[in-house]
Amino acid sequence: MRTATVAVILFTIVTAVGGSAASAQAKSGLYSNLTLGVDGATVTGVFSDARVGNGTDDAPQFSCLFVLRGVLGSGADGATKVTVWSPPDSATTGGTLTFAKDTAKLRLDGDPPGCAATGDEFASAAYEEPSVMDGKWNSVRLVSAATAEVRQAPVNGSSAKTRLSKGDVVVIYRRIGSWLEGEDLNARRAVRGWLRASDLAPDQP
Q1: What is the pLDDT, as a whole number, of residue 14?
Q2: Are 123 and 94 in contact (CB under 8 A)?
Q3: 3, 64, 109, 121: least CB-packed within 10 angstroms?
Q4: Best CA proximity match to 107, nearest among 47, 161, 60, 153
Q5: What residues are paired with 130 via a beta bridge?
Q6: Phi-psi group of 102: left, alpha or beta (phi > 0 → left; psi -120 to 50 → alpha; rest → beta)
Q7: What does the alpha-carbon distance between residue 176 and residue 190 come to, in Å, rounded to a whole number?
Q8: CA 124, 115, 130: angle at the middle one, nearest 5?
């Protein structure tokens, strides 16, 4: 009986250490088309890809765009269970996110809308990419307003430094009241400033 008890304890310790190690490798960054933000045990992200098709660079014909959220270590073997959705549609799909050696691996229960047209697969094969940029941001949001002004300071009368468009991905550094400090890293010229939280899609479905 004592031997069995010791074995159970050792298994529990090894499992916990393994899960902690997997979670410890999670970090904010750009993983090709997947931007992730880690804040404590919470991970948020946006996947954004597009194909011009019969459209233009500014208005592509096909796009794969979705938001994700999860709790680190909430899945088996230290994996992170995530929920993904494509605003404004609140329908969700589940999946798992893992980190290993600066690489993020995302597998979903089904491919989000539009992703098949851009050649992005998440169900039949996992999306797996190394980090191309480590970040100091703590979350990732998606612009939902037609236009969103990036202001000099978190006040209504502050001057606008630049404007973002619906569908732009924004990394967030901090929050003051109803204002979020962030920037669009994919812009031709990244400008850090303050955005109204109401101009961004909710970070939960």
Answers
A1: 35
A2: no
A3: 3
A4: 47
A5: 103
A6: left
A7: 21
A8: 70
**Domain boundaries of the chain, sorted by first residue:** 22-134, 139-199
pLDDT digits (tens, 9 = 90+) for 80-112: 999 999 999 999 999 999 999 899 999 999 999
Provide the whole-model pTM: 0.85
The answer to whether the CB of 104 falls within 8 A of the CB of 32 is no
Query: What is the phi/psi pair of residue 133, to 5°?
Result: -160, 125
- CATH number 3.30.230.10 given to 139-199: no
Give dist(CA 41, CA 81) in Å, integer. Answer: 12
- C-alpha distances in angstroms, 174 versus 4, 67, 76, 126, 171? 49, 19, 31, 31, 10
Q: What is the DSSP string of 149-204?
A: EEESSSSTTSPEEEEEETT-EEEEEEEETTEEEEE-TTSSS---EEEEGGGB--S-
Q: Which amino acid is at 99?
A: F
Helices (H), 30-178: 115-118
Q: Extract the tokens encoding 4.
A: 């069995």
